Amino acid sequence: MKIATLCFLIKNCSNEILLGMKKRGFGAGKWNGFGGKVGSDESIEEAAIRELYEETNILANKLQKVGELKFIFPYKKEWNQIVHVFLAKEWKGHPKESEEMLPQWFNINNLPFEKMWQDDEHWLPLVLNGKKITATFIFNKDNETIAEMKLNET
User: Which of 16, 17, 28, 151 has a CA-to-CA distance to 127 between 20 and 30 Å?
Assistant: First the structure.
């Protein structure tokens, strides 16, 4: 199972979160956080910082781990992954579009869940409200809708 990261920038002063429209590859056409695979020579946190920088040109100063998600795709096993979720509230730089992502700020009370992965509406509001979570999502044959879900606050 792949190990991956997912990072969200949070502006506390304005209750905004930075999401990226995925332009290619896995999750193309969906709003999401920033992240990707962990390299063999880096820690999970180092991978989260690197991926965020590659996708937005932003360098996070400090990350807060808020969750661990297991995604199981029985009909597309190569997509199975464990994702470590982080929030960043301090960083350097301004979001820039990359080849992979188009960043945009959203109010945390008005997220585009209809254009996100279906699981996001179950766990993202919890972490935005200060909770730490673990979850497992098993997807249906369409690789989009959730067949089973187990979500715990830790």
Answer: 28
